[in-house]
Amino acid sequence: MSFRLLNTLTREVEEFKPVVEGVAGIYTCGPTVYRHAHLGNLRSYLMVDWIRRVLEHDGYTVRHIKNITDVGHMRQEVLEQGQDKIIASALAEGKTPYEIAQFYTDAFLADEAKLNILPAHKFPKATDHVDDMVELIRCLINNGHAYVVEGNVYFSVASFPRYGELSGNTGKGLLEGVRVDKDPWKKDPRDFTLWKSAEPGRTLKWDSPWGEGFPGWHIECSAMSMKYLGEHIDLHTGGVDNIFPHHEGEIAQSEGVTNTPFVGFWVHGQHLLADGAKMAKSAGNAYTLEDLQLRWFDPLAFRYLCGTARYNARLNFTFSALRAAERALTRLRDMAWSWSVDHGHEHHAAREIAGWRDAFWEHVRDNLDLPGAIATLWNVTRSTLPANVKRQLFMEFDEVLGLDLNKMAERDTIPAEARITIDQRAELRRKGEYRLADTLRKDLQDLHCIVRDFSRGSGVRAMTNLESQQQRWPFVSSSREISSSMNTLDNYEFSLVVVGCNYQPDIQRCVESALHWSDSRSVQVVLVDNGSTDESSQWMEDTAVADNRIKVIHVDHTIGDAAAKNIGIKSATGHIVVMLDTSVEVTGDIYSPLQKMLNDGSVGVAGPFGLVTEDLRHFEEVEAFREVDAIQGYCFAFRRFDVEKVGLMPETFRFYRNLDIHYSFFFRDVGLRIMANPEIPMRRHIHRVWSELDEEERDTMSMRNFRRFLDRFGQRADLLVNNKTSNIDS
Predict the structure, then answer these.
(1) Strands in 438-489 per DSSP E
(2) Residue 302, helix vs strand vs coil
(3) Number of domains the chain contains
(4) How far is CA 265 from the centre of its chain?
(5) Which end is more exposed in the chain, N or C (fewer Cβ atoms within 10 Å of the end residue's Cβ)?
(6) For 244, which DSSP code?
(7) The domain spanning residue 293 has which CATH number?
(8) What contacts 24+ positions apart, CB below 8 Å, involve 325-332?
(9) Torsional sign, CA 278, 282, 286, 292
(10) 47 in a domain, yes or no?
């Protein structure tokens, strides 16, 4: 079966046919090196790695080029505004643009190595090829496809009738490739920049026939791909977000110079979502490979996860799915390891082997059907093939899959203190004292070793990082994994819910101060470790061991603020739930006044810091004991049984800001009042989540949350306290 791929240009799955038989030139749009590549970026690079592995297995001589964009302006609108992401990052970090670019280039190459992505044959840098770009621009001007205005050079979209064919963005409905104020120098708003005149003080700039400036984003890839692969490229890859305007611009520029077809096959990888949403820094879900490793995952577990979906289909990344992927990968490696020890019958079943090979390659060559290929791998494990043959097939298939299925056992590090125990156990088994030998299994497990016994021998391997961590303490990936205690009887008067992510001293101050003033109260503390990467996790564990009133739930990554608080609410068993922010310090008895207010069945929420509003758009903090419209999240108390009718927090609120207002209105909407008592003894300290964030980022996320509030309650003036006749006076 020939190798077939989905060609974006034709919208058809077609047989891959290069210009020169047996030779494949591949160009991949590489990273813009001003920050770490996120998992969505890396999924696209995994796609082309699998394509390349298939082609090389089929005997092709592959020439793979992957550029490094070390001139910023990743989006066209940034280019139009004369802003450069490389320069912006350099200014923020106090480094030169070249230092920034090199740092993130090295990080990108390290990430690719961790994922077993074969290195491209060449990684050309944009800054090394500015002369080539200038020459292409000169040709486009001479060919009537570009024009010069005030030191800027623009591509004339009207001069290239086929512009838009790749994306389908054609005709009268053609969209502009930019979302900024119209450039008055353009002849047509659809025209895009080939060369931008440098603004005063710009660092990254070059000489050109049109004055000092810097190249456009699209022209970079045209210049580098044509230089190393010629005027026609067999296969060009990238993410779907590259199709328009970037790849559309590449086609127009390149063919505007050569007047020949630029690319034979366009292949694009679909988006990787995170918890159902597009990955974005502002959403807090633009995870990097380092994020996974900090949370004990094997990078190749992500490679396995990506292989469970077609490259041209969206894939939803969750840490639960990643954990399942790592478990599957570990099991496959364990089986390959067992077959190396327990060979079984040494014979070959040639016909049966051929059948399994044919099944695997049929999937792989069918538009890179990796889910089907991985299913075939699992079917091999359940087959009646001898162990040595199974292992042979595993190793053959892994040449394409790239999962390091041979990685286990002797190549893993065994703790030195475990080796004596391993030798003792082996000696006991040799003597036939199997029951006594088994008693050492737990000892080895405590030393983070896994014991496997086979019919013809046994082996010991080190636990994976994830297995070791799970042995230290269990963790969850979402609030859905927590069983609700809402319908259970009260075990405590109060459940204090504290969500912490790093900043251990703040967490400690909050918890210890709250317990210090609890006196004879029946108090439970639910600590939600929201993906901490510092000493906070260990402090929580140690504190819980020392005090049985404390319950810790670890989350394996930083989930949204609402989701983390929902974990605490669902785990609480106290009559009154008090959510405390780690920025607060309890300075006296908070329990009596909170209890007094919530003993009134008409009151749903109580706390010290109340807010009122006249128009649902502007909120002010009150300084008197009174009924209010909302309670701030520093201290937010309610009866546990009310959650059943109010509901949990909406988990679209990943950022904490304005979540307290939103949830307050949940209580108001079911007819419950909200009371504030500023005399409740509590001190507010620096709020780290707010203070450590970039000002623009926190403002963006705050406004996003406030819009969510307005979408739901913006027209509910009937819920406001100033529209109610009843009130409580002090």
Answers:
(1) 449-454, 457-462, 475-476
(2) helix
(3) 4
(4) 29
(5) C
(6) I
(7) 1.20.120
(8) 325/301, 326/297, 326/298, 326/301, 326/464, 326/466, 328/304, 329/298, 329/300, 329/301, 329/304, 329/403, 330/464, 330/466, 330/467, 332/377, 332/378, 332/381, 332/394, 332/403, 332/405
(9) negative
(10) yes
Structural domain boundaries, residue 441: 412-472
pTM of the predicted model, to two decimals? Answer: 0.88
Q: Which of 648, 485, 666, 483 is nearest to 563 (CA)?
A: 648
Q: Give the whole-angstrom CA distance, residue 712 versus residue 710.
A: 5
In the beta sheet, which residues pair with residue 154?
147, 193
The single-letter code of the amino acid at 361 is W
- What the block records as the tokens of 578 is 């008090």
- Tokens 């004055």 appear where? 211
pLDDT along the chain (730 residues), means of 10: 96 97 97 92 98 98 96 47 64 82 95 98 97 98 98 96 91 47 81 92 90 93 97 97 95 97 97 87 82 94 98 96 96 90 62 92 98 98 91 96 82 75 87 88 90 76 91 92 93 98 97 96 97 95 96 94 97 98 98 98 98 96 96 98 97 95 98 98 95 86 95 96 60
Burial of 615 (0-12, 13-18, 19+ CB in 10 A): exposed
Burial (0-12, 13-18, 19+ Cβ within 10 Å), 417: exposed
Residues 6+ positions from 161 with CB-CB distance below 8 Å: none
Position of tokens 């353009």?
186
Of 359, 374, 409, the domain-final residue: 409
